[in-house]
Amino acid sequence: MYRNACHPIAIPLLLILAIGLAVGCAADQATVAPHVTGVTEEVGELLITPETLETRLADKRLRILDVRPAAEYAKAHIPGAVHLDISAWKNLALSDGGLQDANAWAKNVGSLAIDNDTSVVVYGGALNDVGRAWWLLKYVGLADVRLLDGDWDAWQAANRPFETGTVDVVATEFQPQLQTDRLAQTADVKRYIEDSSVVILDARSEREYMAGHVPTAVNLDWSVLLTDDDRFKTPEELRKIFENAALDDARTVVSSCATGSRSSAQVFALELAGYTNVKNYFGSLRQWSREAE
Q1: CB neighbour list of residue 283: distance below 8 Å, 6 or more residues apart
Q2: Cα–Cα distance between 94 and 228 in angstroms, integer?
Q3: Cβ atoms of 203 and 253 closer than 8 Å
Q4: N or C, fewer C-beta in 10 Å, the chain?
C-alpha cells in the first residue's frame, strides 16, 4: 500500500516523469463521488449534511456550487446552486503565475456572487473536481468552505428538492487573501527533499509512482482513503492510514499527484483526520517535470 523508493537526485527524471505525468493526467479525471461515512458536519467544519443544507437553502450568506458538467447541472441541481466551470479554474491555477494572479481570482470568485464573508458548499459527483474546488477556495482566502456529505447522490436519494435550468447571479466584490502557507512550490519541494521534518506524499497509483516521482516521496494512493463504495473513511480510519505512512502532527505534510486534483482530495482527507500542517503541491508532477532541474 505504501512505497518509498528513493532515487539519487542525479538520475535523469524528466523522461520517466513525462511517462508518469501522461498517465496521471488521465487518472486525475477519474470520477468518484465525494461521499463521507461516519462523519458529522462539525468535524473540522469541512462537511455539511444534506439535512442541514436543506434548512439553509434560503440563507443569503450561503453559496452552493455545482462542479458537474454544465449539461448535467442544467438537468437538475440543488435549488440556488450556481454552476462552477472547474476546468477553467484548473487551467488558471496551472498556468504560469496563475495561483498568484489575485486579480484573476477576484474576478472568478466574485462572478459567482461570493464575497469574503460568504459560506460555500461544493458538490458535483467527481471527488477530484470537488476537492480541487474546495482547495482553491480555501487558498484564495474563504474561511467556510464545505463539501456536501454524500454529494448529489445522497441529495437525490432522499428526494430532496431540486430545480432545472441555470441560476444567474450578480457578481460581487471579492478580495483574495492568498493563503500561501497552504501551497508548496517547486523551490519548496526541493528543500523538503532534504528535510526529515517534512513528508512528501504522492497520491497517484503505485504504477504511476513507479514510473517516476519526486525524490523521497511516499506513495499513498488516494483510493485507500475511500471505502469500497467510494466514501471517505472515518477520521479515525484516515488517521490510522496516515500514521502508517509515518505521518505525525510534528511533521509537515506535502501532498502531490499529477495536476493537483487527487492531491487536493488528499489534503481534504488529511484535514478531516485532524492534520493542520498540510500543504498542496498543486502543480505536482506537471510542474516538477518542468522546473526540477
Answers
A1: 94, 185, 186, 259, 260
A2: 31
A3: no
A4: C
C-alpha cell at 287: 510542474
Nearest Cα residue to 99 out of 132, 145, 69: 132
Task: Look at residues 238, 248, 195 and name the one whose alpha carbon lies nearest to residue 217.
Answer: 195
Average confidence (pLDDT) per 10 residues, the chain, 293 residues? 42 44 46 39 71 96 97 98 97 96 98 98 88 97 93 92 97 98 96 96 96 95 84 89 92 95 96 96 93 77
Per-residue cell: 163: 430545480
**CA-based nearest residue to 64, from 143, 109, 123, 128:** 123
DSSP 53-106: HHHTTT-TTEEEEE-S-HHHHHH-B-TT-EE--HHHHHHHHHSTTGGG-HHHHH
Cell for 63?
A: 453559496
Is the separation of the CB atoms in 34 and 127 below 8 Å? yes
C-alpha pair distances (Å), 274 with each of 1, 96, 269: 22, 32, 9
Stated pTM of the model: 0.86
Query: Mind listing the domains of the chain with CATH numbers?
Result: 2-30+183-291 (3.40.250.10), 35-178 (3.40.250.10)
Under DSSP, is residue 207 helix (H, G, I), strand (E, B) or coil? helix
